Amino acid sequence: MSLGPTLTTVRLILRPPQQSDFDGFAEMASEVETMRFIGGVTPRDGAWRMMATLTGAWALLGYSMFSVLRRDTGEWIGRLGPWRPGGKEGGWPGDEVGWGLKASAAGQGYAQEGAIAAIDWAFDHLGWESVIHCIDKANAPSIALAERLGSSVQREDVALPPPFQMHKVDLYGQSKAVWKARWR
Amino acid sequence: MFDLRDLPRIETERLVLRGWREEDLDGGFAAMMAESEVARFLTGDQRAKSRAEAWRDMALFVGHWALRGYGLFAVEEKGSGAFVGRVGAWQPECWVGFELGWGLRREFWGKGYAFEAARAAGDWVFANFPLREIVSLIHAQNTPSQKLAERLGMRIRASTLHAGTPHHIWEISRADWLKTSQPRAMA
Q1: What domains can you pick out in chain B, each with its CATH number?
Q2: What's the pLDDT tens digit per position in B54-106?
Q3: Biggest alpha carbon distance in chain A?
Q4: Interface of A with B in 152-181 (CB under 8 A)
Q5: Which residues pair with B112 in a beta bridge?
Q6: pLDDT tens for residues A40-75?
Q7: Does A1 fall in a domain?
Q8: What band does B183 get if pLDDT is binned at 50, 70 and 90?
Q9: How many domains are contained in chain A?
Q10: CA of A4 to nearest chain B CA: how many angstroms apart?
Q11: I need a labelling partner for B68 at 20 to 30 A (CA). Which of A107, A109, B33, B130 fits?
């Protein structure tokens, strides 16, 4: 059962979530540091609902976050990719590519490698003219990654739609033209 | 390839149970979740939901179908095509069991629609999954749903706290369901 494409990078496989990913999702959702800026620690029942929501978004929109697996071990290490809950009418501040990896997979360039593949796919297949990343001001590692990808701050202290209306983020982003010039 | 259009379609006398469409959000589902009387017993915090939250619920229902192979159907009224509610199978991780669940927009209460849809969904569940019983998790103050569970032949198995509020776990065995279900033609 496939909801979307499988993308392959040097070290990673990106594909839509499936039930066998769940233990990975649940482990990541239990990590305090990992979840600090992306919704907070969530128990197993909530982790499954998050995974199912990402999965359902694939069916409703034709895009959503991918599960990220290491090609060498097959291990599920995180989820990243296009995210715009509700689509164009959903109140999300733009066409986002977001990322989040398990703690054990952080610091090895996996998020950058996966994000590049996901942004390439979004620009080539979804008709996007720009990409954003919604990042908490205090999330230094994600800000550093956004900047390595060539994105810069566009708007600060932006409110997200419910249930995250209390959570302000800074919008990083860039245009398709800038992306294509940089990562050709 | 998982395709929403491939989800089962069940017709009853007055209703159609079918897969979700993006249009269902503004076609009635968002309005339903914004109704405090409906949300009171359907949402974890008993609070009415915004449109953005209702979309996430819809994505969750669709993802449940993709991950589990069963889920909640969108229910529409045959004559008008109006979105009536959501009824069907529900078993997210850590749930109390394989649930038969229902929830309708306020304006469609009192017509027997929930019974009609729940009966058809239960028939579909027992016909397609090797279950010994199904359950329904119902708020202890949700009298209309308790009456429906009784009408379906369900009995209270246990009391439990769910999302911090008292609920009952209703259940019915396959044998009892098949004893009480009205025989009728179904594709």
Answers
A1: 4-131 (3.40.630.30)
A2: 999 999 999 999 999 999 999 999 999 999 999 999 999 999 999 999 999 99
A3: 43
A4: 161-163
A5: none
A6: 999 999 999 999 999 999 999 999 999 999 999 999
A7: no
A8: low
A9: 1
A10: 8
A11: B33
